[in-house]
Amino acid sequence: MVCQSVKGRSTMITTDTEEFTDTFARDVDEGLRESPKKIPCIYFYDYKGSLLFEEICRLPEYYLTRAETEILKTYSEEIISCLPSDVVLVELGSGSCIKTRFIIEELLHQNEKVTFSPIDISKTMLRESSKSLLESYKDLEIISVAAEYDEGLRQLDMHIEQPKLILWLGSSIGNFEQKDAIDFLNNIVKTSSQRDFFLIGFDLQKETDVLENAYNDSQGVTARFNLNLLSRINQELGGEFDLNCFEHRAVYNVKNCRIELYLISNCDQEVYIADLDRRYHFNKNESIHTENSHKYSLEVIELIAQCVGLKIVKQWFDARRYFNITLFSPENVHDKSLESL
Alpha helices of 163-255 — where are they, by DSSP H? Predict the structure, then answer.
């Protein structure tokens, strides 16, 4: 790990990028040799992928960001009122931090100084978002971590003693299978303090056409986002994918309550990846599974909380009840700020 300070108010903790590249290469090789083929969705978010996702968030069909923003804009004061006064704000997969500003502004309204710790795998995105936030808020200090979530939280535990509000927005939890989501949250809870709180966004179950339109936008931005995964393999691993030979597809699996993203080969082909020194065969119409996005019921949210030993403090919804944000605390927390809820 390496720490670098910027202008006194910003510190970045970075991980070993070579180790991350090795992991990327291993996961691509293993995923493309499986049947059916798959690549983990975490690799969507290089710098270009992060920018494309920000563009997705502005699309008319992509209701998730607007619904979550509505909740944060409307209820940020109420959310902060549930927390200790000296809380440090932490965000998993922070991106550009646009929605996070509602929480930051409310914290600054109630405190002279606020510490914000974004965790993201894109160092470039962390630098740009930190620069923008510091220009906007003179009383903000940033300790950013370029890492995967669990490693990022372990690093922060060595630097932060105050209670934390850990944000996990955008329904990113939906990318996990339910068992994996429970395991992931269990790990977070184990590495967190008993004084920490968790604010998590959940996309709720709704009509199939609303869901499928959100991931098959008319401008093709989601398709470019999905195909950028192959561009990244080309650039970082010496791949020879022809993006014109693959198509984006997103479908709603009603049985499993999830959107599924695929890249579909439109011909029989072989693709060589130099860094792996291997050729991968694709049949026409063969798929690479790139992402799941699970949609939640309130009953499943309650079940997850019970499984990981968290207590639901309070829940908030947008006007159409498309989206839910839930505040959790460890089960054994008895803070006076909770007694009035």
Answer: 178-191, 208-215, 221-237
- Model pTM score: 0.89
Identity of the amino acid at 263: L
Q: State residue 121's pLDDT score.
A: 80
Tell me the domains of the chain and their CATH numbers: 2-16+55-207+296-339 (3.40.50.150)
What is the distance, to the nearest Å, from the Cα of residue 91 to the centroid of all Cα atoms in its chain? 9
Planar angle of CA 60, 220, 53, nearest 5 degrees = 70
Distance CA 231, CA 39 (A): 13
* Cα 205 from Cα 294, distance rounded (Å): 9
Decide if 329 contacts 311 (C-beta within 8 A). Answer: yes
Weakly modelled stretches of the chain, pLDDT under 70: 1-8, 15-21, 332-341
The DSSP-derived string for 235-280 is HHH-B---GGGEEEEEEEETTTTEEEEEEEESS-EEEEEGGGTEEE
Which of 98, 105, 4 is closest to 51 using CA atoms?
98
Tokens 């962390």: give the residue: 126
Q: Which of 197, 196, 195, 215 is nearest to 206 (CA)?
A: 215
DSSP states along 309-326: TEEEEEEEE-TTS-EEEE
Question: What are phi and psi for residue 340, nearest 5 degrees?
Answer: -85, -5
Kindly state the greatest CA–CA separation across the chain: 64
Could you tell me how far CA 315 lies from the centroid of its own chain? 20
